[in-house]
Amino acid sequence: MKTYIGIDIAKLHLDIHRDGKVARILNNEKSITVFLKSLPEHSVIVCESSGGYEASLISLAHSLHCSIARINARQVRDFAKAKGRLAKSDAIDAQILTEFGQAFHPAPLSVSEPLHQQLAALVKLRSHLLTQVTQNNNLTETISDKLILAIIEKTVSNLKKQADNLQKLIAEKIKSSPSLQSKVSLLQEVQGIGEITASSLLGLMPELGSLSDTQAASLAGVAPFNHDSGQFRGQRHIRGGRSQVRSVLYMSALVASRHNPILKALYQRLLAAGKPKKLALTALMRKLIILANRLLKNPNFSLAN
Q: Do the domain assignments include residue 183?
């Protein structure tokens, strides 16, 4: 029988709910290793996404062959509200995570290869730098001081150079792995997915190729959900998922809407039917991630485009 152990994660410490009690340890390699080695067989750690502060725990758990499940924070909060647990503290959150595990038996995370972890880190850093480029460019819209504008221009130039260097490192990582090279080539068969998009998808969504169509769209945050209540009918909305994946898919959808014959036709049909451009592009994003998932799942999958 599995034993679920909830862990609330902060930058400096972990609150662990185990055997009905909560204990706190430091969020560092030594403390986490000691804790993991003390776990009984068939234990499953349950944590939530914590802005990356959970990375060390997950990595060490996998290295010591411990099962660990990572839950979306919104799911955990909704679960707590459903139980009438409105109070919030680190200790309470750890207990809620244990109860969530006991109720839903979440699937443990699969172990990532070191090379894939490195690729993911590079892709995420590049994405972060490009976000900073956009933020700095947006500043120029409200600033007229020439000195400040010159500083921003220099900052943007340096950020772009760093992003370019990271893309070169990403390309080198992929080149060093025949498996990753093959996957990038497969993804580029879809018109609208270039080398940068392909490498970004592999880094940000390593599960691609092992998911159903619905799971792939949901994980990317482009699956439509019903929002019908009372007299309100018909609208569907996307929510959740990985925002960085959506950003990558959005740019690919823009390209596909112009250059992919089949997706371009779909885009134009949606616009002709009176659908907003944003909704039409979201539909293309969903098609792209599903195509990418199918290609990696079955390399013999035949594309119509």
A: no
- Closest to 46 measured CA to CA, from 15, 82, 84: 15
Residue with tokens 């992929």: 174
Q: Which stretch, 43-57, 77-91, 233-247, 266-280, has highest mean pLDDT? A: 266-280
Residue 77 lies in a domain: yes
Q: How far apart are CA 145 and CA 111, in angstroms?
A: 51
**Cα dihedral sign for 177, 68, 34, 6?**
positive
Per-residue pLDDT of 105-131, as tens digits, reads: 998 888 777 888 889 899 999 999 999
At which residue do the structure tokens 């959740």 appear? 240
Q: What percent of the chain has pLDDT over 70?
A: 93
- Neighbouring residues of 263: CB distance < 8 A, sequence distance ≥ 6: 191, 192, 253, 256, 257, 284, 287, 288, 305
Sign of the dihedral through C-alpha 201, 204, 208, 214: negative
- Decide if 186 is inside a domain: no
List the single range of 116-130, 234-248, 255-269, 272-286 with lowest mean pLDDT: 234-248
**Pairing assessment for the beta strands 67-71 and 43-48 based on DSSP bridges:** parallel
Q: What is the pTM of this model?
A: 0.72
Q: Report the candidate in 242, 232, 215, 234 with the shortest Cα–Cα distance to residue 279.
A: 234
Taking the CA of residue 174 as centre, how many other CA atoms within 13 Å lie in the half-sphere pointing to its CB? Answer: 24
Instruction: Look at residue 302 and tell me if it is in a domain.
Output: no
Give the domain extent around 126. Answer: 114-176
